[in-house]
Amino acid sequence: MLVPADRHRAAHSIVTVLNPYEPPADEAPLDPQGDEAESVVIKVAPLYLDGFDLVAGQLPGLIYLWIPAGLVGWLTSSFLFSLATVALVCGLIFLFTIRSLEISSAGLRFRRLFGHPRFLPWNRIVRITQATRQEVLIHGWTAPRFPPREVTTASTTKGHFRIEWNEGWLYFPPADPARFRQLVALHHGNEEPSGPATSALREPLK
């Protein structure tokens, strides 16, 4: 049987435990919330166009849109088939477009509907280097392959990084380059921030 003093202490302890407004102790670390503890999403750089992009950007449009549409229209003698070709190519590019990049301790996950790679573990990544605008234009936009090595919503040649793995490479323009460098150095430690990937371009292009 509890004496009045014991009853008071017991009631006080119950109130203390059930009080939802009591702040945690300073030395108690807060638990990370869900996937945020393991991965960080890096968005694509916002749309940016300058004189260089306005001129250079006509080349991929010519290669991937207008030449195929012109050939289809010439072979079929149909303007509707030409428009359908433009719509088809635009739809395919949209399906392969990289919208963001997820970085975690496991590797890089490219957020897009279709395309290869979708996920690259760190042990497959050879290096990540900053790319020049000319490199992005030549090897990212106008190289004769589909999908292109640079297929994002940025629509600019600025601020790209070349992500290389054993079978190839692609280009990604992070919205926060400093954060991107920090995360790559944390998980991979093989990012080369001091200049474009000129040494990589001396290797045979695949």
UniProtKB/TrEMBL annotation:
Keyword Transmembrane helix: yes
Domain of life: Bacteria
Source organism (scientific name): Rubripirellula tenax
Protein name: DUF304 domain-containing protein
Transmembrane segments: 47-67, 79-101
Protein keywords: Membrane, Transmembrane, Transmembrane helix
